TrEMBL record:
Pathway annotation: Cofactor biosynthesis; adenosylcobalamin biosynthesis; cob(II)yrinate a,c-diamide from sirohydrochlorin (anaerobic route): step 6/10
UniProt KW keywords: Cobalamin biosynthesis, Methyltransferase, S-adenosyl-L-methionine, Transferase
GO molecular function, one term: methyltransferase activity
Stored InterPro entries: CbiD (IPR002748), CbiD_sf (IPR036074)
Name of the protein: Cobalt-precorrin-5B C(1)-methyltransferase
Record family assignment: Belongs to the CbiD family.
Superkingdom, taxonomy of origin: Bacteria
Biological process according to GO: anaerobic cobalamin biosynthetic process; methylation
UniProt xrefs under NCBIfam families: cbiD, PRK00075.1-1
Reaction(s) the record says it catalyses: Co-precorrin-5B + S-adenosyl-L-methionine = Co-precorrin-6A + S-adenosyl-L-homocysteine
UniProt xrefs under Gene3D superfamilies: CbiD-like
Main enzyme class: transferase
EC number: 2.1.1.195
Length: 372
């Protein structure tokens, strides 16, 4: 990454004036790392340092710890920074036990951590609601601890969150079929503080910096996974990546007044289905996936009445996408085209070519619009 790109990104982050925090996934990784270290060595590292997906190495103080002959438990209090996160201050615990040889890392849901009960999420029904990136983080840290202290790396990790079931009632988990508590989340380990005015201002500054650097192609991305996708697709440098988050409208309206030759919008299928339906704010608190809209869109791609009905009653947007994929209906492409057309309507004839890429949670492309 060039010094110019670093400077532009740093300026965006500094401008917000908000303190970032740590995800439940980062806290769970820290707790599990401390617990497994104690199980093998007899001592809890406090603070415990972990490595996040983007290379940061934060240290976490332990709030609780407990060691016996066959298990170790450690807990970390989540600090969400300046984000108004309902899980801020929650105590995330990890209890680690030895598992049979060859079993690898097995995850269990303890009190306050939910279990998946409906299809359409990136986890199988019956699995603890511990998302893929936190699982990978914990696997990697268990392997590192095992290498240092002579363990096998075969462990059972039971995650729990004090009052998690009560806190989860303030989230979308119950509606998504995640029952019994919270999800252990995070794709970067870092909580970016949510502030409409600060975030939107940072988007505007990102456009300004990209234009000043002579970039003619920028990408509005909903998160880290979509950033990786557009970099892989187009080789864009970091300075051309706009951390759009949920604010699609902010990107489009500012680019309308400050045009670039080409704008790529990339994000998760469910979020971009909201843009396709006409929503410019993609946050779950202010817009929802409209499955009836998806059903009608699928009809234009060949879905029959029975499939359209199943889409309209699907648990999630991902579930609707999976139904269409099985039937050979290109719902991802249809959503991408509809989202592109909505973007063009907001641009109101500004000299900006637009394309849209929809991805799944793993970053695989599930829909494209083409450039127009």
């Amino acid at each position: 990454m060039s010094s110019e790109a670093k400077g532009g990104r740093a300026a965006q982050l500094k401008h917000t004036g908000l303190r970032p925090g740590w995800t439940t996934g980062a806290c769970a990784t820290a707790a599990a790392t401390a617990a497994y270290t104690a199980l093998l060595s007899g001592d809890f590292p406090d603070p415990v340092t972990v490595t996040l997906p983007r290379g940061q190495t934060p240290s976490f103080a332990l709030a609780v710890e407990e060691l016996s002959a066959d298990r170790a438990m450690a807990g970390v209090v989540k600090d969400a920074g300046d984000d108004p996160d309902v899980t801020h201050g929650a105590l995330v615990r990890a209890t680690v036990r030895h598992a049979p040889p060859g079993s690898g890392v097995v995850f269990r849901a303890g009190p306050g951590v939910g279990t998946v009960t409906l299809p359409g999420l990136p986890l199988d029904v019956g699995e603890p609601a511990v998302n893929p990136v936190p699982r990978q983080m914990m696997r990697e840290h268990m392997a590192r601890v095992a290498a240092v202290h002579g363990g096998s790396g075969d462990v059972e990790i039971t995650l729990s969150v004090d009052q998690g079931e009560e806190i989860a009632r303030s989230t979308w988990n119950p509606r998504l079929g995640i029952l019994g508590g919270l999800s252990i989340l995070g794709t970067t380990g870092v909580v970016v503080p949510y502030s409409c005015s600060a975030w939107i201002d940072s988007i505007r500054r990102g456009v300004d910096v990209a234009r000043a650097a002579g970039r003619t192609h920028v990408a509005g991305c909903t998160g880290a996974t979509s950033e990786r996708t557009v970099v892989a697709e187009y080789g864009l440098p970091e300075i051309a990546l706009l951390d759009m988050g949920d604010f699609a409208g902010a990107v489009l309206k500012y680019v309308r007044r400050h045009p670039v030759d080409r704008l790529t919008v990339c994000g998760g299928f469910a979020k971009l289905s909201k843009l396709a339906a006409g929503h410019l704010d993609l946050h779950s608190a202010r817009s929802q996936v409209d499955k009836a809209f998806l059903a009608e869109l699928a009809r234009t791609g060949g879905a029959d009445d029975a499939l359209a009905e199943r889409i309209a009653t699907a648990n999630t947007g991902l579930a609707a996408l999976q139904l269409c994929a099985a039937a050979g209906v290109p719902l991802g492409d249809l959503v991408a085209v509809a989202a592109r057309d909505q973007a063009l309507s907001v641009l109101r004839g500004a000299p900006v070519a637009v394309d849209v890429i929809c991805i799944d949670r793993a970053g695989a492309v599930v829909g494209r619009s083409g450039v127009r």
